[in-house]
């Protein structure tokens, strides 16, 4: 009996450690998983974000974005994302530090990727107004080229060996509970590009938010409704 | 006879012009590619800019005295005690370095992808550091991190970040 209790405890601990998703941040997003696609698109009106950055919360950020993921669910297969960001950014003149890096608060756009196993990359995207409606797109164009667009303008071309992506997600990500939006809590016109060369609105999807097991954010992603039926190409986020 | 020659010459000129114009339009592969790329429903394909003018224009004519200083760039990493030397015989100072170069040279050395918003001849600072533990804004605490930050040398704006680690277990997209 003495020997069985520790074994049982170890089993329970192991069980729960696998049950808890290893997400570093909090998400409220909608998703189409296990697909075979060559592009993703969404539109967002009047998104105004507050990443929760302050003199005492110097690492805080929030993004409203989309992700195109590669591989069969493996994290190491990577992804590409493009969207809006508000929060801490590295800055040689920054008055604050996040960890041991000088930072300041910034508001704008970005594109990022896990380009290969264990490598995260992030690029500044600039030159676009932070008010009004904006459009975000990632699309395979030719060869090894995956292009990230903001407002139909190519901002970065990633090089990847894959010619199809397997996951499309649209929504918010943050690392704190102070982050929020002051306007623009919807994503509309959510579309994917099929391997046949045609774009189409989402006709199905899943929610990935607090209610599905994420941490403490209390943000919810919900699909829109149209004429009493679910409109999967529109998502609304609430908290 | 003279009238016939004039008519014939005019015909040759017209046919040549038509042939030239059709060859010229067929020989522009980028235009052809643009029209071949499918665009989202309801979006006018002519809105797309595949090769926009850079937001950060070339500035190699600027003297180093007009740029952010190397000391300022190195001071971005505020605590050298967190640096990890790859070689125990060297000091941790060796794990932090800043190099002034151009965006084009940086991208060439990096070897993949291309950014549309920064001119190849824009001067940039490339700051690198190796850390046993690094607190990143997006990723949180990353162990055994190789950090690369690229700053615009004229304005100090951060253009690029890379965090590489064999311990990186981020699940994002």
Descriptive report:
Chain A is mainly β. Chain A is built from one helix and 17 strands. Chain A has one helix at residues 4-19, and strands spanning 26-45, 48-50, 61-69, 79-90, 96-98, 101-116, 119-125, 133-142, 145-150, 153-159, 165-174, 180-183, 186-194, 199-201, 206-208, 220-226, 229-238. In chain A, the strands form two sheets. Chain A has a 15-stranded antiparallel beta sheet that branches. Chain B has helices spanning 2-26, 29-36, 70-74, 103-110, and strands at 96-102, 114-115, 123-136, 140-152, 158-164. In chain B, 30% of the residues are buried. The model of chain B is unreliable at 17-33 (pLDDT under 50). The chains are: A mainly beta (239), B alpha+beta (173). At the A-B interface, strand 3, strand 4, strand 6, strand 7 and strand 8 of A face strand 2, strand 3, strand 4 and strand 5 of B. Strand 10 of chain A pairs antiparallel with strand 2 (114-115) of chain B. Chain B: Keywords: Signal.
Strand-residue proportion of chain A: over 45%
Helical content of chain A stands at: under 10%
Query: Low-confidence parts of chain A lasting 5 or more residues at pLDDT below 50?
Result: 8-23
CATH fold category name of chain A: Jelly Rolls
Strand content of chain B: 15-25%
Give the overall silhouette of chain B: flat
- Number of DSSP helical runs of chain B: 4
